[in-house]
């Protein structure tokens, strides 16, 4: 067998990304868990826009590093007011889109600089 199946490549990257997210969320206690996940998702989107990575790093590592399921879980938490949930939702969605746009713009700037 000369090639590793794409599912193994992506799955390996996802496992490492999820482990990195776990390490960060278990060590960061300065801010609350929903804010930590929001920042992780924004950082992941920015890196995705900047690097346009291969399946291992993109879909795999950054896909495992970011977390839509934790984001959805925090939004559905009964102790979160509708106002806080709305702010978390909008901040995460717009932050991730803005992060990707910023990363993409920085990558283009890097490749077109004299």
From TrEMBL:
One GO process term, biological-process aspect: cellular detoxification of fluoride
The UniProt record lists the keyword Transport: yes
Major localization listed first in the record, in broad terms: membrane
Chain segments annotated as transmembrane: 30-51, 56-76, 82-102
Catalytic reactions of this protein: fluoride(in) = fluoride(out)
Location in or out of the cell: Cell membrane
Record's keyword terms, sorted: Cell membrane, Ion channel, Ion transport, Membrane, Metal-binding, Sodium, Transmembrane, Transmembrane helix, Transport
Activity regulation as described: Na(+) is not transported, but it plays an essential structural role and its presence is essential for fluoride channel function.
Keyword Nucleotide-binding: no
Membrane topology: Multi-pass membrane protein
UniProt-listed Pfam families: CRCB
GO CC term, one of those recorded: plasma membrane
Binding site for Na(+): 63, 66
Top-rank lineage group of the source organism: Bacteria
Single GO molecular function: metal ion binding
Function as written in the Swiss-Prot or TrEMBL entry: Fluoride-specific ion channel. Important for reducing fluoride concentration in the cell, thus reducing its toxicity.
Family membership noted in the UniProt record: Belongs to the fluoride channel Fluc/FEX (TC 1.A.43) family.
Name of protein: Fluoride-specific ion channel FluC
Organism name: Corynebacterium pseudotuberculosis 258
Gene: fluC
């Amino acid at each position: 067998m000369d090639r590793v199946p794409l599912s193994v490549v992506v799955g390996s990257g996802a496992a490492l990304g999820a482990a990195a997210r776990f390490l960060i969320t278990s060590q960061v206690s300065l801010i609350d868990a929903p804010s930590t996940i929001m920042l992780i998702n924004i950082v992941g989107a920015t890196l995705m826009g900047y690097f346009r990575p291969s399946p291992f790093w993109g879909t795999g590592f950054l896909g495992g590093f970011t977390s839509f399921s934790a984001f959805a879980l925090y939004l559905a938490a009964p102790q979160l007011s509708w106002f806080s949930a709305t702010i978390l939702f909008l901040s995460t969605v717009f932050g991730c889109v803005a992060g990707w746009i910023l990363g993409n713009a920085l990558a283009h700037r890097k490749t077109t600089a004299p």
